[in-house]
Amino acid sequence: MKKVAVHGTAYVVFLITFGAGNQFKNDMKRILTWMLALAIVAGAGAKTKAVKTPPQLKFDPTIGETRTLTMPDGQEVNYTAYEGMFFVTNVEDSAYQTINVYVPEGATQQTPILLRTYVGGYMAAPAQQPKASDATGRALKEGYVVAIPGSRGRNSTVVATRTDKKAGIKKGQTIYTGRAPAAILDLKAAIRYLRQFDDVMLGDAEKIITDGTSAGGAMSSLMGATGNNPAYEPLLRAMGAAQQRDDVFASVCYCPIIDLDHADMAYEWLYNGTDSRQQGDTDVLAVSNELKAQFPAYLKSLNLHMPDGTLLTADNYLDYIKHELIRAAQIAKNAGADIPDSLGFKFSKEEMGGMPPINGGVKSVSKQELANQMHLSENELDKMMSRDIQVRPPVRLHLQPGDYIIDLDMPTYLNYVVSTQPLKTAPAFDTQGVAGGRASGENEEFGGKSGSSVNFTDYSAAKTGSLLTDEIRENVRLMNPMNFIGDGVTDVAPHWYIRHGARDRDTSFPVPINLALKLQNAGKDVNFLLAWNRPHSGDYALDELFEWINSIVKGK
Ligand code: DHB
Fold this sequence. Notes:
By secondary structure, the chain is of the alpha/beta class. Among the domains are: about 10-45; about 65-260 and about 485-555, Alpha/Beta hydrolase fold, catalytic domain (Rossmann fold). About 40% of the residues lie in helices and about 15% in strands. α18 (about 510-520) links the parallel β14 (about 495-500) and β15. The longest helix has about 30 residues, at about 20-50. It starts with a helix and ends with a helix. 3,4-dihydroxybenzoic acid (DHB) binds near residues 121, 122, 257 and 506.
């Protein structure tokens, strides 16, 4: 357009200058004036266009600031800090859509990156600085690059600067910016940002290890389980995220609060029989009974197999949980923890003269039976018992009479868990309007931009007569890592470290166990434990965590 205008103008100027008649000249002058005006408008248009060019994502390697972190043991760790970089170009909430990156001395282009999210309670979390007391400080000490992105959450708001009739938003109105799936979109955008600048930033974006606790554990599991899935693509595009991949190398998930559309039924399936549920509010118990009854069909639909290949069913699941709890308690006992029998445990010294359970299992056998099964005389068995044997890697048990946990009474144990912290009401998550329940954080998480809270499960929506819109269903789907593992489309992280405290009742044991088994069944490398005596918490046992991280990054 601009080019044509200039050529046209030159032609008119040519005619005026070289001998055209007066009338023609006047006409031409008018035309010339119009064409000049058009040319100016075209030029101005081009200028406006230049201003409208989308802002670019930026990383300036020269802004780094040298700092020192003093670790709990007094060791000083030097690193360079790069802070406050926007990871999207269409920034909706400048308080949260930034990332900080910390590069320890000695890092190279090949150094893995620990990406820690501080999301908790599905709330907004700003980008933060590394802390000596958690995995971020430890990662810097171990020589890893640390990335801490912020993300919007259910409580983050901005004031609308203009009216958007289509979205039903008025200028000046408070807008909730972080309702689902905003948080995972921000974190995926942050991963893409690290890839975008991988060449100019130290650290290897192909070796990102995500880490988070609780709702942050859910975010970590989502980052690990939704890599490059096309359902998130248009949303990320609209935000102005980098056009890059967003799969990661590994995910560390402490007590992930996930599978929100089935967590209520799993919770009641496990805790329905506890004294506190049975003796509590009758309306709540009625809800608990109904939800409990829904879990077996859901479990069946998952088609999960235990590590030995057996199909997991509602009939054998409690035994599997028992097995996992005994495994966790035995590891702690071997490390010197006192495991009281008041919690429901039985020890080998009471049952079988101090003999260990065969194959580290939980079945109680007599010394003679054990000797028969192992094709040994009792004398030979005695000799063998005095040596170390490898029961189940990586646990080495030194076999001594009385050391072995051989059984656990599950009702006693579950009552103990509930005694350490009262159960959530039923439903535990989609609470709003059911059995007198008020809106939970999750009801807000799936609510709208105006700050509404909504039901998000079929069960609770049916109870309250509310509508589960397609939009709510899709948001729930995008927030559940279980939907993408093994789907043949998504690039799921190859390495997983999942911990849920053995006395954490914020969600029920089947939720993290299902996640771990689904990943294992899909061929992923999974390190799972119901960590002994841990309540709802994260970033613990850092020696063990970093031993695992060091092993996976070295390919061992
Ligand atoms: C968190 C804890 C919960 O019990 C829950 O329902 C959601 C989130 C948390 O600690 O992040």
